Amino acid sequence: MQPEQLDCGAAHLQHPLALRRPLRAIPLVEYLGLSSVSVDDVHNHTVVFLGTSNGRLRKLTLLANMTLANQWTLKLPASEAVHHIMTFDPNDSSFLYLMTSHHMLRVKVAECDQWRSCSDCLGAGDAHCGWCTLENRCTIQKECAQRLLARSWISMGEGLQQCPSMTLTPPEISIFADIKDVGILINGSVPDLAGSQVECEYGPGVSTAATVHLDYGLTQIQTCPLLPRENYQPILPGTDHLTVSVAIKVNGTSVVSGSFIVYDCNRTGAIHPKTPCVSCLSTRWKCYWDQKKHLCVSNKDESKQDLLENAASCPSLVASEVPPSPSGMAQDFTVSLSNIQEGEELECDFGTEQRYEATWLNSSTVKCSVVTLSTNQRSQVYHLNLRRRGYLSRLGEDIFVDSPQPMRVEVYNCKVGSSDCSQCWGREDQGHLCGWCENSCRPRNDCQPIRDLCPAPEIHKIFPLRGPVEGGTLLTVQGRNLGRRAGAVNVSIGDVPCTLLPELYTVSVELVCVTGRSQHDRTDIVQVDVDQSEMGTSKESFSYLVPKLLSMEPRKGSRAGGTRVSIRGEHLDIGSQVRVMVNNTLECSITEKTDETIECTMPPALQAHTDSVAVCVKFENLPCLSAELSTTYTYEKNPTISFIHPKKSYLSGGRTITVTGQGFDLVQSVTMQALGIGQTHCTVVSPSMITCPSHASSQSQQTSVQFFLNGVLYTGDSPSSFDSEPEEEEGEPHKGHFLLEYVEDPQFFTANKEKLIKHHPGEPLTLIINKGPSDLELVPEEYSVMVGSYPCNISFHNDQLFHCTINGLLSSSESELPVTNSSKTCQTPDHLWCPLKQICSAQVQVGNFRHTIAKVQLGGSELAIVVSIVVCCVLLLLCTVALVVYCTKSRRAERYWQKTLLQMEEMESQIRDEIRKGFAELQTDMTDLTKELNRSQGIPFLEYKQFVTRTFFPKMCSDYEKSLVQPAYENDGLGPRALPETHPLLQDWQATNTTRPNIEEGITLFSTLLNNKHFLITFVHALEQQKDFAIRDRCSLASLLTIALHGKLEYYTSIMKDLLVDLIDASASKNPKLMLRRTESVVEKMLTNWMSICMYSYLKETVGEPFFLLLCAIKQQINKGSIDAITGKARYTLNEEWLLRENVEAKPQNINVSFQGCGMDSLSVRVMNTDTVGQVKEKILEVFYKNLPFSQWPRAEDVDLEWFDSGSNSKLLQDLDNSSVMEDGRKKLNTVFHYQIPEGASLAMSMKDKRDNTLGRVKDLDTEKYVHLVLPHDELMETKRSHRQSHRKKVLPEIYLTRLLSTKGTLQKFLDDLFQAILSIPPDRPPLAVKYFFDFLEEQADKRGITDPDTLHIWKTNSLPLRFWVNILKNPQFVFDIDKTDHMDACLSVIAQAFIDACSISDLQLGKDSPTNKLLYAKEIPEYKKRVQCYYLQIQEMAPLSEQEMNAHLAEESRKYRNEFNTNLALTEIYKYAKRYRNQV
């Protein structure tokens, strides 16, 4: 009680009430500041509640002998003292009412649900808590629903032995045993289970009904039907049993759990091949050994009489010791056997490939003859086993005679690991018979005669070189020939012996000895004396020295420790171990050590009231007896921190926090740590004050700060650091944590908020600065104002306003001007200067916060006059110059205008010609193209598996496609050949040598897991939540899942729909029109793949032909005109960027070509006279191989082309050769016109003998060195050409844009046919997948109340046209085996853009500045839009598709392409993601 409470009755009586004989008792517990007490009896235990003056409620549970069983402390709000009256709730004794000065609280007496098991609950020592058996949780008795039943609630007093447990009979079951039920004995306190629903649970959702047979009070017996064996997990490889968990559930709640073992005796013998019989008969379950079959079996058949039951009767090898033998020497081994029949054929197996016949010597002994074992190591141990010859196990493995103790055969190699004589002879202790001869270590039989004398020891190094005279230093000596064994070596330092430590002795090369005591300080050499050899001496000397301690600073510190002390003396860094001991029990941690100083950190005091202690520098393990090495150190009371001020900081940090307290003279270093923000270093100002800068914070918040004094966390001024019970001190003053609040930075601005202040020299400058509203309570000392680099003194008017005044003359002739700051008056020197341009910054600084409030500009009247004169002079000069220039330009412009008129007339004439040609081409090209296009050739569709891999993995297929387009050919002269399919998912899966044996089983299990819908959806969502799971990973995972589940498309569809529902839910809350716009999630890529699979048949049967005809038409139209081989620009194109904007004269001509090795007659090929040799080759190859897929074509680089002129002379045609000409500094490629090849010329093509890579691909040539038809950036180069070329006729490049219309008109019919095929519904092949998915989208929109038709239109467009058809239009190589050139890709981009615009609901706003790629089809887009709307309406009007019909359709698709893909590889790749994100999943 408090002292004022002891005067009982003093206010009303003459004398306080008192006892003549006071009652004495030993306190049960002691606490400071107790203010109230309340006691309760709970289940025969005394429970005491104590209130404290600092706002704590302590609960003590006492046993019957009044010893403490448990205690806990509850922190109350506001930390107010607890009133002395506390009472229990009369209606519910599990609540306690208590009061503080401002609060009345109803506190629950126990929190039992924090313990999860019966043992934890009863072992916690809380009398209120017990185990509610049928609810399987820790509760107060009142909260247990079945508490009225006997044995349903176990109290702390009943003991842990009453916790429910179970015993299973039998505990082990053979996997082959015909056992239907298992008996379960339930021990502990469990209520009567009669009438309850009792189940045996073997896993989540797997349970059987249990039968209760007997109920004997605390013991209950019941039986559980076992599951069929196939329902258990398989026994893992390398093990012989499986632990099966079983739990007893009563009315759906697990009450008690246990396990039993399912074992397989056959596996027991298999996993111990060297001791099969002994291992079989030594298991804890019953197994038998069948000698005839050499098998471990689980049951004893009456027909088998020779089954062994005891491990002692197993046929076994009796191990014996064998002396080590030299490597490569032939020898015999005798082996003893037991329980084995004489005459059985055996072989000796040493673990090598070589086996040796075992010869029987008698009924229990065999001999392994002429055994030769070798090793390249110093020593190698072989294990001898006996193999039964002629027997193999069921798995094809060898059968061995049991070896309970392995028979070790050591083989040594004298030549390895013995670099000197002593090491060689020293191996004799290990049984190695080696000898040193001819300067090397060899077997003794090879050394004749044998001389066992070794050279004198050589000492290379000793350390340490100094030690105390008392000895005890661990001296290490390194060298050569330092003895064969420890017993033969003597070490001394002069005449002082050094005791050798055998456990640290390394033969010949290193020894460690303990120095003896010397009578005085001295220096001498180290001597090593070896028996049967000479003595060796060291080149270095060892010194015996006398260390001294002269001083130690400081001599006092806090009891918490952490004080850094510096010890000064002599010879402090000698010996092998130096320690600084405090009171002979604690150690001062050394941080730095030299010969004259030791820096160390003092440990905390062991007792709370320790004062003076002894400090001693201890060398080696010698006791501290010398006064010259000892001093004293005083532990004083720990520093205490009372409070900090201010309690707020601005976000930028740097505010000075003043820490007030006592005893700071003992503090050497201080660190203030703001929890969750950072820490800063502080400064000790006085014994009662510390200043700390606050750390910067990223946001406004309230946090706690704590202090590290001398590196030790400050925990308050109470002696709790020496108490056994830690206090809850968070947020409490004087307990180590102090509140600090971060608020926004202060705001400053000038009175009128101007940004630029003009000041005239000679006048005083005064800045009036306002401070924005803030509750930081800043004091004047925290402000500073700078004008330029000069500080100003500040004067305040109030908290919101201060002045900064600069008196005296201000000059701009020097370098700088001071900067002034807000609400303060800055008084600076008489002369202040501004930098260049006479502008300076006025900046306010508070801590780390700096804010520029204004710019100060200096100016004056003299300067204005000078500037005005200079400006007038400059203007007059400029006017004169402008007049002269104008006259000159006028005359020059007159001449230029006349010249321009002539050029305009020429240009008009050329434009008329170009437009006339364009009109003619537009009328004739369409007819010509339709006539020339060859419809008879077959369409080179890719197989379904190639279509899928290219669509699903476009990144991987780009490399794959390159391998097809550029095949490698051998010089076989047989023409082209097909390449094998290279995509990994199309190859047979084969495990590598390093693959674990159970990988196929693991893949099967993982596949089963993926077929769990809940797991797969959770798995996808978990991966998508990871920041490092990139979009590329999401697309890859989606495609791998599609491959893995390709055989179950109906299941795949349901997964996709569930994920889409989640995606729609997420999009509906934001902007639903953006859904499916991009592919940023797994489900969006899954939808792309699903559409590709479902639409493949429709694509191939309906859209394939018009699409292929469009591609052929594009290619043929491009080839009709000139094409620049280097830039790729062509006369005919749909893309403006690829248009050849120059009038290149080109004429078509026919040539006759024969291809050697193809077995065809010569064919006529149409080429342009502007074609390069490479372009001619490509056109020839197209004629010869037009009926073959492109992957089987040779490349132009792989063939040679020869021209036979009229004189039967042949000439090899090349793009570049010695006849190539130069144009504008570039070498021009050779063309048909260059070689002057006439109409109808005969050419021959043949495969090259050897690949020539000197030129490479023409389109990769450097445009700075080579040219074909036009120069790059022709319009820019034109200005650089010489004057002599200025007469060249040149027209505006834009006039050639009419060629885009010509090409468009030619291809229009083919494009219309393609769009019609895409946007129509054939009656015989309706797109079931489209109908199904569009209905799904409409259903989801209805569920979410989305009625906007535009939103549904966008969803449908994003899911089918943009997600599937646009991808196919841009990538025809996904569907056909063709050559998609860069130019064709550019044209297809224009067509795809037109298709995208047709599916869009927004109207195109086009004008003269719009890109030509959009203007080209602007006229047709409205008609295409109508087709799209009609298509969506037709889909909507189709008959609804049921789930059964769709599933049947999907099942048919799965069956049609079964076994096309390597699903095991796909599953392996998916598992890599599962392994990578295992914890997150």
Any descriptors?
single chain, 1481 residues, alpha+beta, nine-stranded mixed sheet, eight-stranded mixed sheet
Please describe what this structure looks like:
There is one protein chain. The protein has 1481 residues and is of the alpha+beta class. It is built from 24 helices and 78 strands. Strands 23, 24, 25, 26, 27, 28, 29, 30 and 31 form a 9-stranded mixed beta sheet that branches. α19 packs antiparallel against α20.
Helix content: 10-25%
Major sheet size, sense and barrel closure: 9 strands, mixed
User: What is the global morphology?
Assistant: extended
Number of alpha- plus pi-helical segments: 24
- β-strand number: 78
Distance from N terminus to C terminus (CA atoms, Å) equals 57 Å
Query: Low-confidence stretches at least 5 residues in length (pLDDT < 50)?
Result: 718-734, 808-837, 957-981, 1274-1291
Instruction: Please state the CA-atom Rg, rounded to the nearest Å.
Output: 49 Å
> What structural class results from the helix and strand content?
alpha+beta
Instruction: Give the percentage of residues in beta strands.
Output: 25-35%
Task: Give the mean pLDDT.
Answer: 83
